[in-house]
């Protein structure tokens, strides 16, 4: 029997201390050929290191806001709910996975926390802090609906995966990547300039996307998850 790669899927922690994760994340990994493993937000460094050794890949899922102290800012008035346990766990796990060159795919919040973990920063609220007029980035349409286009750089890994330099995505965020961390580069942006994806030049697969491909059933999302799991 061919063993499937073990893909860690990060989770949220509710006010009632319940572990939450959208089942669409699990389905996307399963359909792409991976073995999903939902990760609790543990604070123990030895446990985090053990996860990094056992996992074949890491899916950083969407969710709430990120503590701005990680990029040396005070909280903006429009900062939403944060989960300190989740921030700590994900940043520490990312920093354990990257030196091992294990594949990472970050989605929405996962894209942002990946960037913070590598030394980048972010807009706490794009509507208050972005320099130019914006598209609607928190769409009122259903999750499976694509609302705006992204432009993909043709010399990027993302382009080689999705086989397109322009396609539509869904959008559910008010925070976004501002300055990308060292060793990574922007590979896709929205028409208003908001960063929609970035990737590493020094790792086999480390990509963050601002949209939610787990909710989409298009060819681009399927190719992204297949490439991720195959690399794992």
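^ Assign residues to that structure.
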């Amino acid at each position: 029997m061919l063993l499937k790669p073990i893909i860690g899927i990060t989770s949220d922690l509710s006010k009632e201390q319940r572990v939450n994760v959208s089942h669409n994340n699990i389905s996307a990994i399963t359909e792409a050929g991976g073995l999903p493993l939902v990760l609790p937000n543990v604070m123990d460094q030895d446990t985090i290191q053990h996860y990094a050794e056992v996992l074949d890949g890491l899916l950083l899922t969407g969710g709430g806001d990120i503590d701005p102290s990680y990029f040396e800012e005070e909280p903006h008035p429009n900062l939403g709910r944060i989960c300190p346990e989740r921030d700590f766990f994900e940043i520490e796990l990312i920093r354990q996975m990257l030196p091992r060159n294990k594949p990472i795919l970050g989605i929405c919040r996962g894209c942002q926390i990946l960037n913070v973990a590598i030394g980048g920063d972010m807009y706490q609220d794009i509507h208050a802090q972005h320099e130019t007029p914006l598209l609607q980035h928190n769409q009122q349409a259903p999750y499976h609906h694509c609302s705006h286009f992204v432009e993909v750089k043709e010399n990027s890994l993302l382009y080689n995966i999705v086989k397109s330099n322009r396609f539509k995505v869904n959008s559910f965020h008010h925070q976004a990547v501002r300055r990308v961390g060292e060793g990574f580069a922007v590979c896709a942006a929205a028409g208003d300039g908001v960063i929609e994806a970035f990737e590493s030049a020094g790792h086999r697969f480390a990509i963050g996307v601002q949209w939610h491909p787990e909710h989409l059933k298009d060819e681009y999302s399927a190719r992204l998850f297949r490439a991720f799991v195959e690399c794992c």
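The mean pLDDT is 97.
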